[in-house]
Every structure is written in structure tokens, then in C-alpha cells.
């Protein structure tokens, strides 16, 4: 009557699972890693193509020629900015109005949970300035956004100049069907978040901002621009957004089309695209780019203003002009023409971008891997956890102890509440207790937060010593198996849910945590297993990824530098959770760390 | 046994109160798995405000509750959170006392069958003792109150909780033996959603058996049936007069779920709930309470707008069938399926609505998998129950004709 009720077949399957468990697990893990590495090779990676019909077959002749005007605006902006120290709001308003836009301002302020060391800010207040170019014959129901984030560390004045020159050029055209919003934000990402929240009338991050006087309809797409000099040698595009969300692939295809048309050099993750994918060199370079993208997506940071637009289902990209030591340089006209072309094509959109992929990996600018092809990698890794859990269940069942026995030992479930409580402490205490810490120790607030994080993390390692006093001694051998079973299912569930929304984070954590989780047991070489478990804990994975990331960018770190970067990354992670709603910090502290502690308890089971 | 029950109630009320005060309350009350268009609190408030404005609450096809709910909440709208916490507590208390009495009946019946030598000689380990049955009522109350599904339903203020209370009281009054009261509660529960009508059959069987009346006696059957039928008619009539509108107005809207799409063939699913009553009655006529458990589960699986509150009601009964644990075959896989599906519901919802990537098919697939998991779980319990009965009458260690150990295979 089928597998579920035929006892003969069930017994055969049970024997198979129990006998071949270790080889199957190893095979599955290796298959997962191999599948991921194979993603860069041609059958699994495909050429990108434009899926949206409305953007494909139109011919666009770019006419932007305002290079001098852009440079003039940029010089003025830089001068005014240096004079006033902050964004020159009055000058921007005047200039935008003279160019012919409807100008509005928005002020915002926010007190960060603790001072931000990297950007040196604590009480942030600023003003965003934006001008709306109304489409001459349309009903203002849809809009496009060109945004230039201005922070204190990157003045971005050339981008502002180009924005104003483009606005002047666009104002003279009659073919616009959507409104265009030219947005200049202060304090880069904070200002962008304030504007977006006010535009969509929500309040997700506790920002205080004045309401917007002028709106332009539903935003269809946005482009963020960052230029550091008058001439660029290449344009770098950033796609990864907040919590690993990605824009529609069509937007990237659009950018690539115009780069090719204008002969501009485009880079992804700072690397040039390999031409030849048939020999081994191309795929190897693609692997580097892919790993960089995985690491950036896994961190869940918004790598540019575009990252915050994605949360509101607005497709967005960030373009950065790089000025390296190459000989051939492009001036602002070339960049302006590319932007003009992109905006003209976006103008033709009839619906939101939805035809192409939302979840993909990029080994190169013109190559992508779709979700259907990369998901099996994480599936194989999670299969290891499933097989191990099945084996443990069968062993427990044979031994006669079930999880629902009325008088069953309380042992297995004892470490669960303390582990979860440690996770909660890790999430809540550092920010809450920073003031107490600064009173008693000579450290700054940000350092206090990071040190508290590390202290609580390390304190969790002492947990098994304390829970053993409570564990009863009946059936001590079986207790750890029940706990490991629960921990394996918990880990598999978490990694599965994470992998569905942010594949890179799920895959990265699975690669490190799955083997040691499967291996953890009280018998055997305890110190070796303990060392392995500590090396694959979430914090160590973060540290390792930092080193790997810099290694791939060909700027390797020494140990001391790496440690400093690690501490800075911890502080940034906590800060970004509070300011933008990034989910990496809560996921690691409330979800994966307690799960890892359960395995630590299994390892030290007496 | 009162003290542990009071402690459990206090803990449950604390958890619910804490969640009501947190920011999660609004988020939970909009989740599709917890509230359905038939049980959503927002719609109750909408109907009440329409009534206050003098418009019929049923115009606009937003409000699908019964007039009795309107009248109940007209006076209690300000204490809504308290009302839902009290309903949960009442359900738990009703189940506690019901199972307490049921255990006594089970033990008495077992003793009777032992004395009549109906059991095989080597089934000593299958016989239940009062010691092991002592904590079952408390566990039932615990399972119901601290079940995450129940807590979510309560925090979302889904009227499914009220339906659960009525069914729990129906079970309590049936087990206590009062036909009149059980008819009242069944009528109230059926009035709110049509499906509890199927519980009429197991309730009737139980009442007849406890009165030691031969179930085949037509006169006795008719008396009980008439009692219950007349009460149901009475209620429908009263409501018709009171609100001047056919109270069956909401009935057409109970048609197939939006998730399955309205398709003529999906009408079969609606009738599916009623299909199982007759075969189950034939097979389980000696065990009406188990029949009731399976029927409640069938209602929760096949009703047109299922929510997790319905699942919570039959899950509360698992401790009662604790002794079947050794015969359950797939409990591990099924528990994993149910937990995974519960966790994937919000993830796939997020992917569909916010990330713009998945679509309704993913969500539908998870709903389907969850239902398949529940169906397998119920059939596993059914199989385990029948297997135990077989062992009790035919002996635990079965031998084939040639003396080797035989295996029991379900055909």
C-alpha cells in the first residue's frame, strides 16, 4: 500500500538509512559545494537578455551635451558646500528652480542608538532637496528617480553637477510620460531612508522627518549616482540591497546595454568582465565575482542608496564612477548620455518591471544564474541535516525512548530555554547596557557595545557547565540524542527559511555550520570537535568572510587589521539594524546563536 | 488537581496579555493563516459600525458573522481582549472536565470488558491504568492553552475561538450525559458555521451508549434526534425573527475558499466534510469520542476557510490518545512536515507580496502540503487506534499458521 504503510519496505528503507548514513551525508555535502562551484560554468550560467518588451525594441538617440554646464554646477556646489559645511540648501533650491523644476525640501533628524565611529555621527539632522520635473502631457501617476546621496565623507559634487545639467536637458524635452524626481539627500543613506519613508507614508525605522509637500506618483525605478571626479575610467554598478534584496535583472540589462552602446567600461564588484567563457580563465574570474556577490548579499547591508529603494518594491541601481590609472577616460558627457538613454527607455515602461528575475546570482555583468539552478546547492546541504535527524530518530526509536513518554527525562529540553535566553541577551543587552558600561570602563559607547556583544557571546560557551546541575541522570546516553535531534531540525528550519529569502546568507551559513552540527557528539575527540565548533560559529563565519572578501578584492588583510575590521563590522551591523531595519543582527543573535549553543551543549553532554 | 490547572491558566493569560500589548498584535491579526474572511475581527468591527449607522451589516459582503455575534459584541466591544482570553480559558476548563469524566468512563468500560474476558490473554502491557491517566486532563488543557496556534488565534481576536468554546462545551455536556445542554451547544456551534452539524452523529452515539439503550432501538434514536433537531430549528427561527433577515444569509458565502478558487468541482470539497461521517460512524460506532476527534480534525482540514485555530482544537486531544504512541508509524516525518509548513507560510507570503518574486502558487502549495500532513497524521492515529483494538481482542504476539511471527498489514 505504499511506503508509508508497508512494513517490509519501511524496514528496508530504515536499514538503508542507518547503514549508509555517513557516506550519504558526506556525498550530499560535497554535492552541494560542487554544485555551487559549477554555477559559473556555461550550462548553469546563461547570457542575460532583456525580458521586458517595452524596453527592448525602442531606438534612442542620446543628445545630452551639457558637460561644461555640469562641471560648472559641480564647482559651484563644492564651493558653497565648503563654505557652509553642510548641504547648501538655498543654493540648490535656487539652481533647481532656475533649471525649471518644482523644488521642495524635507528636513529630518535622528538620534542613533550609539555614536557611529565610521561616519562620525550621533545626532543626525539634515535636509533633503528634491525637484520634480512634471511630464508635460501625462497625469503624474508614475515617476522615476535620479538620486545623488551626499554624505560628509563623500561630497559627490560632480554627481550633483551632472544631476542639475541632466535636469536642465530633460526639461527641454517633450517625450516624458512619467515625472522625474531629482533627489539630493544629506547624510547619504539616512537622508534617503527619511525621504522614502515620508514619500510612502510609513515609519519603519523611527526617523523623525517633516512630511513631503510634493509627490510625483508611484516610483517605477530609481538610479543612484556617485561620482568622485570629473573624468571616469569605468562605471561600477552595485545591485545588492538591504537584506540581500536584488533589483529586477532587466534594470541591470538596461545599464549594460547603454554601456555597450556608449563604449563605456562597466565593472561589477570592481572587476572587469571576462570575454571568454569557454576556457577555464573566464569561469574562474566569474567565480571570484560570484563569491564577492555572495558575500555582499549575505551581509545584508544596503551597498548604496538603491538598497533602501528596493524595500518599497522600486527597482534601483547604484552607479559609481571609478577613476583609476587607466589611460582612456570618459568625461561627464558620456556618463550623462548613458543616464539619458536609461531614463528614456525607462520612460517607455507600461508596467513595473516584473518580467525578468528578482532572485539571481551574477558571475559577470552579462551572465546570470537563476534561482531554479542555484537552489539545489543549499538543498543538498540541508539534506545532510535531514539525514542525520532521521538517523537519530530511528536510533532513539529502536532504543525505546520517544519524545512523548509521560515520565521521560527532562534532560533533552533543559538547554533550550537558557540558549534562547542567551540569544535574547545578545540581542537586547549591548545597546541597552552601553551607558552602564561606559560609566564603569574607559571605553567609548560604540566600543562598549561591541565588547558587550563579544562578552555575552563568549559567556554562552560556559552554559553546559551550569545546565548539567539540572539534568537528571536517567538515560544519560539518550538525552543528548534527543537534544541533537531537536537542534538539527531547528537549524535546518532556520537555514531553509533564510535561504528562501536571502540565498547567499543561507548558503554561507550552511557551508560552515552543517558539517560540525552533523558531527557534534559527546564521545570522541572532544577538544578537536570543540575547536571545530567554535571555528564554525556564526561570529567566526563573519570573521572568515571578511578575510575572504578582502582576499578576493586583492587587498588582503593582516590579522590585526582583520580584527579591527571585524569589530567595526559588528558595530555597523547593530547600527544598521536599528537605523534601516537590516535583519542580519537579529537573525544571528536570536536564531542561529541559540541553535549553535544547543550543539555546544550536545558536545559537552555528561 | 485544581492548583496546576489554575497555574496553567495564569501562565496562558499572561502570555496572551503580553502579546496583546506588544507591537506583534497588529501584525498577527492580518496574517492569512490565522484569520479568514469568516472569522476576522476587523470585519466584526466593520459590521458593528454598519449596524450603528443603521445600515444592514450584511450589505457589501464584508461581514459574514451571525447576528448573535453582533449582539454579543455590541455590549462587549470595549472588553474584546478580555472576552477572547476568557473564551480560551473556558475552552480549556471545559476540555479539562470533559476528559476527566471521559477517562473514568474509559476505565470503567475497560474493567467491564476484562471481566467479561473479551481481551486476549497476553495484552497486559496494553491495558491502561489510572496512574498513567491521571495527568491527561491537565495535559489537554496545557496543550490547548499553550499551543502557539491557539495563542495566535487569540491575539488576532479570531471568532474561531468562540466556535472552539462552543464545541468544547458541547463535548463536555455530551460526556456528562445531558442531551438538552449538548443540543443547545451544538445548535449554537452549527449556527455559527455549518460544519459542527456533523458532530451530531458521534454525540448521539455517545448519549445512547451511556444510557445503555440499544442503538438499534428506533424509538430511542428518534427521541434524541427530535430533541436536537427541534432545538436547532428553534434557534434558526429565533434569529430569523430577531433580526428580520434570514440568518442563513451568510451561507452562500461559505462556499469554497478563495485559496482553491471557486470552481464547480471544488463544491465536492465543501461536501467532503459531510462525506466522512457515515463511514466513520459505521467503523467507530463503539468509540464515539474517538469518532468525534476524527470528525473535528476532518472539519479543520476540509472546511472552506481553514485557520490554525481549528487545528488547535483537535491538537488539544493528542494527550488523550497517548497510549497509541507506540503504534504511530510516521510521527517524526509528519511533525516535521507540519512544523516546516507553519514556518514557511510567512516566508512564502513575504516572497510573494514583498519580494515580488514567488506567486500565489507557492503559497497554495504550502497550504496543500500542510493539509496533506494533517490528513496523514489523522490517518496514522486512526490506524494506530484500530491496530490497538485488534491487538486487544486477538493478542499482542500474533503467530501465523506455521508458528512464525506474523505482521499486521493494513489492506
TrEMBL record, chain A:
Pathway: Glycolipid biosynthesis; glycosylphosphatidylinositol-anchor biosynthesis
InterPro entries: Gaa1 (IPR007246)
Gene3D superfamilies per UniProt: Zn peptidases
TM regions (residue ranges): 20-41, 357-385, 448-464, 485-508, 528-549, 581-604
Localization (cell): Endoplasmic reticulum membrane
Keywords: Disulfide bond, Endoplasmic reticulum, Glycoprotein, GPI-anchor biosynthesis, Membrane, Transmembrane, Transmembrane helix
Any one cellular-component term (Gene Ontology): GPI-anchor transamidase complex
UniProt keyword Oxidoreductase present: no
Membrane topology: Multi-pass membrane protein
GO BP of this protein: GPI anchor biosynthetic process
One Pfam family, short name: Gaa1
The organism's place on the tree of life at top rank: Eukaryota
Predominant location category: endoplasmic reticulum
Subunit organization: Heteropentamer. Part of the GPI-anchor transamidase complex, consisting of PIGK, PIGT, PIGS, PIGU and GAA1. Interacts with PIGK.
Function: Component of the glycosylphosphatidylinositol-anchor (GPI-anchor) transamidase (GPI-T) complex that catalyzes the formation of the linkage between a proprotein and a GPI-anchor and participates in GPI anchored protein biosynthesis. Binds GPI-anchor.
Stated name of the protein: GPI-anchor transamidase component GPAA1
Gene it is expressed from: GPAA1
Amino acid at each position: 500500500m505504499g511506503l508509508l504503510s508497508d512494513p517490509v519496505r519501511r524496514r528496508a528503507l530504515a536499514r538503508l538509512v542507518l547503514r549508509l548514513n555517513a557516506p550519504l551525508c558526506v556525498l550530499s555535502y560535497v554535492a552541494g559545494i560542487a554544485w555551487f562551484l559549477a554555477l559559473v560554468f556555461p550550462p548553469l550560467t546563461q547570457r542575460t537578455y532583456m525580458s521586458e518588451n517595452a524596453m527592448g525594441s525602442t531606438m534612442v538617440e542620446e543628445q545630452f551635451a551639457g558637460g561644461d554646464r555640469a562641471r560648472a554646477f559641480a564647482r559651484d556646489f563644492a564651493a558653497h558646500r565648503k563654505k557652509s559645511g553642510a548641504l547648501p540648501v538655498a543654493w540648490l533650491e535656487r539652481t533647481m528652480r532656475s533649471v525649471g523644476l518644482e523644488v521642495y525640501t524635507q528636513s529630518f533628524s535622528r538620534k542613533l542608538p550609539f555614536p557611529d565611529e565610521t561616519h562620525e555621527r550621533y545626532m543626525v539632522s539634515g535636509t533633503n532637496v528634491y525637484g520634480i520635473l512634471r511630464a508635460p502631457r501625462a497625469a503624474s501617476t508614475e515617476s522615476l528617480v535620479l538620486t545623488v546621496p551626499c554624505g560628509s565623507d563623500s561630497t559627490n559634487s560632480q554627481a550633483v553637477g551632472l544631476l542639475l545639467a541632466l535636469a536642465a536637458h530633460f526639461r527641454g524635452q517633450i517625450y516624458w510620460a512619467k515625472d522625474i524626481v531629482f533627489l539630493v539627500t544629506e547624510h547619504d543613506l539616512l537622508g534617503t531612508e527619511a525621504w522614502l519613508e515620508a514619500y510612502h507614508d510609513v515609519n519603519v525605522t523611527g526617523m523623525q522627518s517633516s512630511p513631503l509637500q510634493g509627490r510625483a506618483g508611484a516610483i517605477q525605478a530609481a538610479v543612484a549616482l556617485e561620482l568622485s571626479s570629473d573624468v571616469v575610467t569605468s562605471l561600477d554598478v552595485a545591485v545588492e540591497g538591504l537584506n540581500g534584496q536584488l533589483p529586477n535583472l532587466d534594470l541591470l540589462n538596461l545599464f549594460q546595454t547603454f554601456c555597450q552602446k556608449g563604449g563605456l567600461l562597466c565593472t561589477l564588484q570592481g572587476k572587469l568582465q571576462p570575454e571568454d567563457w569557454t576556457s577555464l580563465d573566464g569561469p574562474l574570474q566569474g567565480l571570484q565575482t560570484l563569491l564577492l556577490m555572495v558575500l555582499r548579499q549575505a551581509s545584508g547591508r544596503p551597498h548604496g542608496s538603491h538598497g533602501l529603494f528596493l524595500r518599497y518594491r522600486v527597482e534601483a541601481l547604484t552607479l559609481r564612477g571609478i577613476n583609476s590609472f587607466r589611460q582612456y577616460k570618459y568625461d561627464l558627457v558620456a556618463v550623462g548620455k548613458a543616464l539619458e538613454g536609461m531614463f528614456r527607455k525607462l520612460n517607455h515602461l507600461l508596467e513595473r518591471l516584473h518580467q525578468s528575475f528578482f532572485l539571481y546570482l551574477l558571475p559577470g555583468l552579462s551572465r546570470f544564474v537563476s534561482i531554479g539552478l542555484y537552489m539545489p546547492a543549499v538543498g543538498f546541504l540541508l539534506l545532510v541535516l535531514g539525514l542525520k535527524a532521521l538517523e537519530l530518530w530511528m536510533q532513539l526509536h529502536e532504543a525505546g525512548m520517544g519524545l512523548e513518554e509521560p515520565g521521560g527525562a527532562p534532560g533533552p529540553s533543559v538547554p533550550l530555554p537558557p540558549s534562547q535566553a542567551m540569544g535574547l541577551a545578545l540581542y537586547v543587552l549591548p545597546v541597552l547596557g552601553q551607558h552602564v558600561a561606559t560609566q564603569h570602563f574607559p571605553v567609548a559607547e560604540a566600543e562598549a557595545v561591541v565588547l558587550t556583544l563579544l562578552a555575552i557571546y563568549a559567556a554562552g560557551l560556559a552554559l553546559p557547565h551550569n545546565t548539567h546541575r539540572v539534568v537528571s541522570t536517567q538515560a544519560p546516553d539518550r538525552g543528548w540524542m534527543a537534544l541533537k535531534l531537536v537542534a538539527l531540525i531547528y537549524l535546518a528550519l532556520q537555514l531553509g527559511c533564510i535561504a528562501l529569502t536571502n540565498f547567499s546568507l543561507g548558503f554561507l551559513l550552511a557551508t560552515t555550520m552543517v558539517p560540525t552540527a552533523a558531527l557534534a557528539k559527546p564521545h570522541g575527540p572532544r577538544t578537536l570537535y570543540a575547536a571545530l565548533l567554535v571555528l564554525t560559529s556564526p561570529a567566526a563565519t563573519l570573521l572568515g568572510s571578511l578575510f575572504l572578501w578582502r582576499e578576493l578584492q586583492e587587498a588582503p588583510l593582516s590579522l590585526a587589521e582583520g580584527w579591527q575590521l571585524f569589530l567595526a563590522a559588528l558595530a555597523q551591523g547593530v547600527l544598521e539594524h536599528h537605523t534601516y531595519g537590516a535583519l542580519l543582527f537579529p537573525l544571528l543573535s536570536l536564531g542561529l546563536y541559540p541553535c549553535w549553543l544547543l550543539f555546544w551543549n550536545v558536545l559537552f553532554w555528561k | 488537581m485544581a492548583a496546576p490547572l489554575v497555574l496553567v491558566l495564569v501562565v496562558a493569560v499572561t502570555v496572551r496579555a503580553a502579546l496583546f500589548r506588544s507591537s506583534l498584535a497588529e501584525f498577527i491579526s492580518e496574517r492569512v493563516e490565522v484569520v479568514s474572511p469568516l472569522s476576522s475581527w476587523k470585519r466584526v468591527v466593520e459590521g458593528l459600525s454598519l449596524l450603528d449607522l443603521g445600515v444592514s451589516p450584511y450589505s457589501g459582503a464584508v461581514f459574514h458573522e451571525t447576528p448573535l455575534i453582533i449582539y454579543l459584541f455590541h455590549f462587549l466591544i470595549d472588553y474584546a481582549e478580555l472576552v477572547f482570553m476568557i473564551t480560551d480559558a473556558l475552552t480549556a476548563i471545559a476540555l479539562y472536565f470533559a476528559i476527566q469524566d471521559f477517562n473514568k468512563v474509559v476505565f470503567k468500560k475497560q474493567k467491564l470488558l476484562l471481566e467479561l474476558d473479551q481481551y486476549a490473554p497476553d495484552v497486559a502491557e496494553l491495558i491502561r491504568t489510572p496512574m498513567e491517566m491521571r495527568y491527561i486532563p491537565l495535559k489537554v488543557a496545557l496543550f490547548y492553552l499553550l499551543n502557539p496556534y491557539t495563542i495566535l488565534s487569540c491575539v488576532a481576536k479570531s471568532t474561531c475561538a468562540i466556535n472552539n468554546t462552543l464545541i468544547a462545551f458541547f463535548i463536555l455536556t455530551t460526556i456528562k450525559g445531558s442531551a438538552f445542554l449538548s443540543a443547545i451547544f451544538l445548535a449554537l456551534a452549527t449556527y455559527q458555521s455549518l460544519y459542527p452539524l456533523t458532530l451530531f452523529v458521534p454525540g448521539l452515539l455517545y448519549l445512547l451508549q451511556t444510557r445503555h439503550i440499544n442503538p438499534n432501538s428506533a424509538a430511542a434514536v428518534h427521541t434524541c434526534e427530535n430533541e436536537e433537531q427541534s432545538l436547532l430549528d428553534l434557534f434558526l427561527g429565533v434569529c430569523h425573527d430577531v433580526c428580520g433577515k434570514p440568518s442563513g444569509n451568510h451561507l452562500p458565502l461559505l462556499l469554497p475558499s478563495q485559496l482553491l478558487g471557486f470552481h464547480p468541482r471544488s463544491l465536492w470539497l465543501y461536501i467532503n466534510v459531510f462525506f466522512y461521517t457515515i463511514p466513520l460512524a459505521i467503523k467507530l460506532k463503539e468509540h464515539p469520542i474517538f469518532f468525534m476527534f476524527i470528525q473535528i480534525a476532518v472539519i479543520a482540514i476540509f472546511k472552506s476557510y481553514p485557520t490554525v485555530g481549528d487545528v488547535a482544537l483537535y491538537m488539544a486531544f493528542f494527550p488523550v490518545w497517548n497510549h497509541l504512541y507506540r503504534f504511530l508509524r510516521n510521527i517524526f516525518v509528519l511533525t516535521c512536515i507540519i512544523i516546516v509548513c507553519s514556518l514557511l507560510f510567512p516566508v512564502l507570503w513575504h516572497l510573494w507580496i514583498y519580494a515580488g518574486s514567488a506567486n500565489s502558487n507557492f503559497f497554495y502549495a504550502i497550504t496543500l502540503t500542510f493539509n496533506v500532513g494533517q490528513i496523514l497524521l489523522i490517518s496514522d492515529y486512526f490506524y494506530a487506534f484500530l491496530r490497538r483494538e485488534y491487538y486487544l481482542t486477538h493478542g499482542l504476539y500474533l503467530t501465523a499458521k506455521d508458528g512464525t511471527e506474523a505482521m499486521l498489514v493494513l489492506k
